[in-house]
Amino acid sequence: MCRTPPYKPPWWLPGALSVLAVVALVGLPLLALVNEASNIELLDTISDPYHQRVINFSLYQAVLSTLFSVVLATPLAVALSREPRFKGRDLLINLFSLSLVIPTIVAIVGIVSVFGQAGLVNHWLQTLGLPSFSIYGLHGILLAHVFFNTPLAARVLLQSLENIPQEQWRLAAQLGLPSNSRWRFIEWPAIRPQLVGIAILIFALCFTSFTIVMTLGGGPRATTIEVAIYQALRFDFDINTAVALALIQLALCSLIMIATHSFGMQTSQGLSEIKLNPSTHYSSSHCLNGLIIGIAALFLITPLASLVVKAFNPATLTVIAHSKTLSALTNSVVVALTAGALAVSMGIGLQLSARHLRLRLNKRSSGKAIQLAGNIILVIPPVVLGTGLFILLRPFADVFALALALVIAINSLMALPFVLRILEGPVLQAAQRHDRLIQSLGIHGLPRWRLLDWPHLKKPIGYSMAIASTLAAGDLSAIALFGSERITTLPLLLYQRMGSYRHYEALTTAVLLLLLCLALFFVLQRVIGGKPDA
Amino acid sequence: MIINRHVKKSPKLSRSFSVLIALGVTLLVGNSAAAAQDKTLTVYTYESFTSEWGPGPIVKKAFEAQCDCTLQFVPLDSSAGILSRVQLEGKNTKADIVLGLDTNLMAVAEDTGLLAKSNVDTSAVKLPIEWTSDVFVPFDYGYFAFVYDTEAITSPPSSLDELVNAPDDLKIIIQDPRTSTPGLGLLLWVKSVYGDKAADVWKKLQPKILTVTKGWSEAYFSLFLNGEAPMVLSYSTSPGYHMAIDKTDRYQAAAFSEGHYLQVEIAALLESSSNKTLGREFLQFILSKEFQTALPLTNVMYPSTDIGNDLPAEFNKLIQPKSVLLLDSAEIRDNRKEWLSEWLDVSSQ
In this predicted model, what pLDDT tens digit does every residue of A74-125 receive, in sequence order? Predict the structure, then answer.
């Protein structure tokens, strides 16, 4: 319509805006923390016997969770690789990455309904005259960590097993290698290099795990640093302890993150697309494999099935129609969509500028640095960030009234690494494919985005928006700090209902949250990304 | 061709994105700018006070009939949490009144500098102790006691010592002293009976503690009354409710020979309140007959004034402590952190 040349924003603008947003949201709270730290006795907090026990417990439960998850994941991955075709195999493997869509707290309600005081397992134990199993405390924390991380580890290990060249299997078949030799000479060498990396990743996840420890632990005997920070702030209004613990946590997380990176693992590992390449070798012990796979499937599916079955009870409608539920639902939708949109906008901004630096200015390291800015949140657990925001804002505002904005900010940062990972490849490809064409046509700026980048990127953008919104909808850590009776979200309401032992209300709330997350996940992909095969 | 196909679709994206963002922003702004009505008195209290069967509804109706204002109760998830909440909110708090702290937290609360003088005439107050505070107004009182289910326990412990030394299969439920005033009360009860040996006593108690809850309601209603444990930390007055309302003698308080620790529940006005006159009116109303007579069967405590024959007859059947224990509130302020760490240390082993 108009003849004026289209506006051409400078290449650095999207990246600069995004970096600015990240720096403001992360840097300022961190500065506030460090500034506050000058007034406190860090050593006193560390030498307090209770806090030492908390630090030890955080490490201890993470080590045990890692051990169990990796040790259980190995036979599972091997069994799956040795059983290349059975009905439901793909479905089961896809289920392994569902932890991205199913909020932690929802799965916990399911786990409690199976392993809790009134659950199936204790019912059986009782019939057999055995002592009952307590889901609260270290046992429950380990169980939940294994529930989430065994599938994650199995998925990574299965991928390396499926990457074994077919020739090796053929050779093994020609030599007639028995199953234990195949393990020794083929499978073990394939998974061994992955084990340390995946172990460190799981250790990092369990070390900072908040929701699981809050719901299944949290008593003085089973508290981690992450939860102790929350308790210092919300129980005691003890800013000194909260800041001291936050700094300890920050230091430990930085160490862990350096270790994770040096082994090439990322928290967003569950996203990596698994290229199933089932080998054609046959296995000699179908029975054992079947047993292992069966137990794993049962362990994964039972809690979710039990949750869905029990959610429909006489109280269901009353619970859903309750004004508290409805207002929490509305807030959750707002948090999910806004945090998702914010994360995706920041992600696109960072990747576009990083791309320009890498491809056109040939500055690979600066490009990497921009992307790293978006991953900074991996070093800073949300509760630590929240504590910083709290201290930063408290002098100026009623922090609880700003709850939603703060929760959105924290959740968008938490989702950013996932968004970056999804977008990185496609953004680069779009440029590699079209740069020449574009130069010859002289298209820049927004028209370029509209004509070339968007069509190529809408699918990954839809996917990253779906992931980011779903993660935000299911998060408890940020709202736990800033939520109050005035502003709740579904995860917080669910936590409160669990905390006051209102089982039926909790079950129904859990299923509602689950449905919200599934809806967000599928609808956003479809609405933004378009039809599956268009 | 490829380009053409997508030209049509592209505006859709920007539209749906801006709709999303606009929606988010609208809801956000709408939510945080909560409509401020004029003459609303906001009272932070604990959850059971505001429940349907609690004193909240009666008090709200009675006060609103005389004040030409709206009385808004904000239920927080625990009693001691009321204090940390106003501390967290600081001068920006929405609360005009805090209601539900107790004598043990008086000095701690006063030290925050967040509270104003009450200017209330407390001459009608009748408590087991003399009332001298010019900041706090006492609304009720009671004695901490272990309440037991007579169908599960036939001979309850007759002293704190017997409880401490009871076999480990006697399970009790207590509350967290960091979040709950009864929880803190038990900590101080043990401290006042055992002094420096308190840590050893807690060690002995550990195997008997089924669970430590955040607040009193979860412990009493969700767990104890559902039969999860035969004994719970509560008040000597709790059986009064079951006798008067449920018409049952099933739940009784165990009388301990060392004496029982006293709790006086208190309310105070916040310095940051913009409704101080109305707030003081409410604090005075706390000592009125309407407020006081509502308490025995709703908050299940003794009223802080003499209400004569309005005290339900069942309250005369309650155990009477041999001696009344109470630590000085300034001593608690100076030692609370240390005592809490001691408890946490033992409880985390």
Answer: 999 999 988 887 888 888 888 887 777 889 999 999 998 898 877 888 889 9
| Distance, CA of A302 to CA of A299 (rounded, Å) | 6
What is the rounded CA–CA span in Å between residue A518 and residue A524? 10
pLDDT score, position A281: 56
pLDDT of residue A340: 96
Phi, psi of A66 (to 5 degrees): -65, -50
C-alpha–C-alpha distance, residues B53 and B45, integer Å = 15
The answer to whether the beta carbons of residues A202 and A65 sit under 8 Å apart is yes
Pair B41, B69: CB distance under 8 Å: yes
Nearest to A469 by CA among A329, A382, A304, A342: A342
A324 touches chain B (CB under 8 A): no
pLDDT in tens, A281-302: 555 567 888 899 999 999 989 9
* pTM of the predicted model as reported, rounded to 2 decimal places: 0.84
- The residue assigned the tokens 């919104």 is A469
Asked if B103 and B85 touch (Cβ cutoff 8 Å), the reply is no
Contact A220 B348 (CB under 8 A): yes
Mean pLDDT, chain A, whole residue set: 85
Tell me the HSE value of A332 on the side-chain side, using a 13 A CA sphere: 30
Taking the CA of residue A501 and the nearest CA in chain B, the distance in Å comes to 6
- The closest CB to that of B214, out of A330, A394, A499, belongs to A499
When mean pLDDT is compared across A317-321, B39-43, B179-183, the lowest value belongs to A317-321
Q: What is the pLDDT of residue B6?
A: 40
Q: What is the DSSP pairing of strand B40-46 with strand B70-76?
A: parallel
Task: Report chain A residues whose CB lies below 8 A from the CB of B211.
Answer: 136, 219
Percent of the residues in chain B that have a pLDDT greater than 90, as a whole number: 72
pLDDT-derived band of residue A371, with 50, 70 and 90 as boundaries?
confident
With beta carbons under 8 A apart, name residues in chain A contacting B341.
48-50
Query: pLDDT higher for A296 or A42?
Result: A296
Chain centroid offset of residue A53 CA: 27
Query: Distances in Å between the alpha carbon of A277 and those of A50, A85, A274, A370, B155?
Result: 50, 11, 9, 35, 69
CB A496 within 8 A of CB A480: no
Contact status, residue A57 vs residue A206, Cβ threshold 8 Å: no
Mean predicted confidence (pLDDT) in B5-24: 44
Which B positions 115-174 lie with beta carbon below 8 A of chain A? none
Of residues B10, B32, B88, nearest to A402 (C-beta): B32
Per the CB < 8 Å rule, is B3 touching A452?
yes
B115 neighbors B96 (Cβ within 8 angstroms): no
Which chain A residues are closer than 8 Å to B87 by Cβ?
Answer: 237
A 461-520 → B contacts, CB under 8 A: 484-487, 496, 499-502
Among A473, A488, A503, residue whose Cα is nearest residue A104: A473
Residues 13-52 of B with CB under 8 A from A: 13, 16-17, 20-21, 23-25, 27-28, 31-32, 34
Mean pLDDT score of chain B, rounded to an integer?
87
Can you name the residues that pair with B212 across neighbouring β-strands? B174
Report yes or no: A245 at the B interface, CB cutoff 8 Å.
no
- Inspect the interface and report whether the beta carbons of A50 and B345 lie closer than 8 Å: yes
Please compute the mean of the pLDDT values over residues A378-396 and round it to a whole number: 88
- Complex prediction ipTM: 0.77
CA distance to A158, B105, B160, B203, B270, per residue, from B332 (Å): 59, 8, 21, 21, 22
Burial class, B209, CB count within 10 angstroms (exposed 0-12 / middle 13-18 / buried 19+): middle
- Residues of A with Cβ-Cβ distance to B13 under 8 angstroms: 454, 458, 528
Instruction: Report residue B231 CA to chain centroid gap.
Output: 20
